[in-house]
Amino acid sequence: MAPGKRGARKRKSGEALGEDTEGSGDRRRKDRGNKKYIGAHVGIQGGIWKAVESCTEMGGSSFALFLGSQRSWKRPPLDQAAAARFQEQLSLQGYEPAHVVPHGSYLMNCGSPKEDVFEKSQALLVDELSRCSLLGLHLYNLHPGSTLGAITTEECVDKIAGAINYAHQQVPAVVTVLENMSCQGNTVGGQFSELKSIIDKVRDQTRVGVCLDTCHAFAAGYNLSVEGGVKAMLREFDQEVGLHYLKAVHLNDSKGKLGCCLDRHEDIGKGQIGIAAFRDIVNEPRLDSIPLILETPGRPGFEYAEQIELLYSLCEENTLID
Ligand SMILES: [Zn+2]
Ligand SMILES: [Zn+2]
After folding, report:
1. Helix (H, G, I), strand (E, B) or coil at 75
2. Three-state DSSP class for 283?
3. Can 322 be counted among the known catalytic residues?
4. Measured between alpha carbons, how far is 170 from 246 in angstroms, rounded to an integer?
5. Distances (CA, A) of 266 to 71, 74, 89
6. Ligand 1 centroid vs 214 CA: distance in angstroms?
7. Catalytic: 138?
8. What is the pLDDT of residues 207-220, one digit of tens each?
9. What are the start-end ranges of the H helices in 58-112?
10. Low-confidence residues of the chain, pLDDT below 70?
């Protein structure tokens, strides 16, 4: 059933777009028939523009990428020619900047109680936002930070918001998208209320949003595995934060059990969350047009391409396009 359905969706949206089916841009647009932008976190080895190609090859419609090495605080400046090539590929292959969500460096802790780490994190945040600007991108996804057990959550929230406000002064336009955490260790942002308290302290609230990671939410105690779990989570998110702040979703199943606080991603349908929640997500109209990005480990025969295909096959709107 799945491949046939997806094929039908492609053909129908292709007809609506006209006769030209030659370019890869057309292939991208066809994949967008049901308004769901499913993709994955792709690598940048060999050049940042290669990320675009990787996503297209796996049949994705949105993607995440790192903006540089995950090991160094200081990186060589982004090459202008590479940035131009990235933008060229993006437009050639039919992606909109709103469906590309760069992921912040894991080195950063913008809530760090250690002054040197805080300073380096703030500087890296400015650098990464500048890179987004150079790449023509509007969204930037960040893990809020950690108290390291040395300061209160409130103090940590103040530091995170301070770093974001500082970076926003240095770099215009890019929206900082805070990711919900799994409540592992001393991380901040596991509870939606913590994300809201950061947002409340960001001066330009048109420049802040949230990326909801399903594995993190489940590990933090939001029960997506029960019937109606996705709707319940979105309701709670809407009440505590506001759905208009939702800019992206990370689609990950969870190796760990509900409320385990462990950040352990699993392939779609192979973990404790289960396939039903993902079916609900890809059929949730409030998630139309929002990038839905996989960060799953993958296994032989069930890598990103197959998981993207599976998720698209679960979209019931597939058959409803005229
Ligand atoms: Zn993340
Ligand atoms: Zn994670």
Report:
1. coil
2. coil
3. no
4. 24
5. 24, 32, 30
6. 11
7. no
8. 999 999 999 999 99
9. 80-92
10. 1-34, 317-322
Ion ligand 1: protein residues whose beta carbon lies under 5 Å: 179
Continuous segment of H or E residues that includes residue 141: strand 139-142
Token look-up 């400046």 returns 77
- Taking a 5 Å cut-off on Cβ, the residues next to ion ligand 2 are 263
Q: Residue 31 in contact with residue 10, Cβ under 8 Å?
A: yes
Active-site residue flag, 222: no
Q: Superfamily for 39-311? A: Divalent-metal-dependent TIM barrel enzymes (3.20.20.150)
pTM over 0.85: yes
Report the alpha-carbon distance of residue 97 to residue 91 in Å, rounded. 9
Alpha-helical segments (H) within the chain? 2-17, 24-30, 50-57, 80-92, 115-134, 153-170, 192-201, 214-219, 229-240, 275-282, 304-313
Would you call 221 helix, strand, or coil by DSSP?
A: coil
Domain spans, the chain: 39-311
Pick from 215, 152, 208, 214: nearest CA to 176: 208
What's the chain's length in residues?
322
Look up residue 82 and give its two tokens.
Answer: 């590479």
CA atoms within 13 A of residue 152's CA, in its CB half-sphere: 3
Quote the mean pLDDT of the chain: 90
- The ligand that comes nearest to the alpha carbon of residue 103 is 1
- Catalytic status, residue 106: yes
- Angle (CA) 237-242-244 rounded to 5° is 120
Ligand in nearest proximity to the CA of 297: 2
Name the residue among 92, 42, 84 with its Cα closest to residue 67.
42
Rounded distance, CA 304 to CA 72, Å? 27
Determine whether 244 is an active site residue.
no
The predicted pLDDT at position 318 comes to 53
- 291-294 and 63-64 as β-strands: parallel, antiparallel, unpaired? unpaired
Answer for the pair 213, 227: CB distance below 8 angstroms, yes or no: no
Kindly give the distance from the C-alpha atom of residue 282 to the centroid of ligand 2, in angstroms, as a whole number.
Answer: 20
Helix axes 2-17, 304-313, angle to 10 degrees: 80
